[in-house]
From TrEMBL:
GO terms for cellular component: condensed chromosome; nucleus; site of double-strand break. It comes from the Eukaryota. Transmembrane segments: none annotated. This is Mos1 transposase HTH domain-containing protein. GO terms for biological process: DNA double-strand break processing; DNA integration; double-strand break repair via nonhomologous end joining; mitotic DNA integrity checkpoint signaling; replication fork processing. One of its GO terms (molecular function) is histone H3K4 methyltransferase activity.
Length: 158
């Protein structure tokens, strides 16, 4: 309406900013809206563009790729592509952007590993570490009980 009254875009922007603060559109956007309105366009949405829309990255395809990787974490992008009939780029985008996975040691793992996961993958099996720690603890306990036993025997002999 204000653009139809030939009010400058800066005045419109300042009025929007005074009401909405940081949530107001930037000056360049308001200028673009005013220009479009003066040219006869009354809608603010962009017009449909030529080209192929991205329709392959659907929740169904994302779930399909997730299930394939869940069944075989060592699967390659090419193998997923063959099983899903998706393009290589779409398959890669689903894996990296939507599933947040990256390939480490020929397996897909979450991009954001926890410290526990990072240590388990980079230093061997955590179970082996726990077994070694438990065995060491048992050895220390046996040493302590042997020392205590010998001290008791020595005091009884006196």
């Amino acid at each position: 309406m204000r653009a139809a009254l030939n009010i400058e875009a800066r005045v419109i922007y300042e009025a929007l900013y005074s009401v909405h603060g940081d949530q107001a559109p930037c000056l360049r956007t308001v200028e673009l809206w005013c220009k479009r309105f003066r040219e006869g366009q009354e809608e603010l949405e962009n017009e449909a563009r030529l080209g192929r829309p991205i329709t392959e990255t659907t929740p169904e395809n994302i779930e399909q790729v997730r299930l394939i990787i869940e069944d075989d974490p060592c699967v390659t992008i090419e193998e997923v592509q063959d099983q899903t009939v998706l393009s290589y780029g779409t398959t890669q985008r689903i894996i990296t952007d939507h599933l947040q996975l990256s390939k480490i040691t020929a397996r897909y793992l979450p991009k954001q590993l926890t410290d526990f996961q990072r240590n388990a993958t980079s230093h061997g099996s955590i179970i082996n570490k726990l077994v070694e720690s438990h065995q060491m603890l048992l050895r220390w306990q046996k040493l302590d009980s042997d020392e205590i036993g010998s001290e008791n025997r020595a005091s009884l002999a006196l």
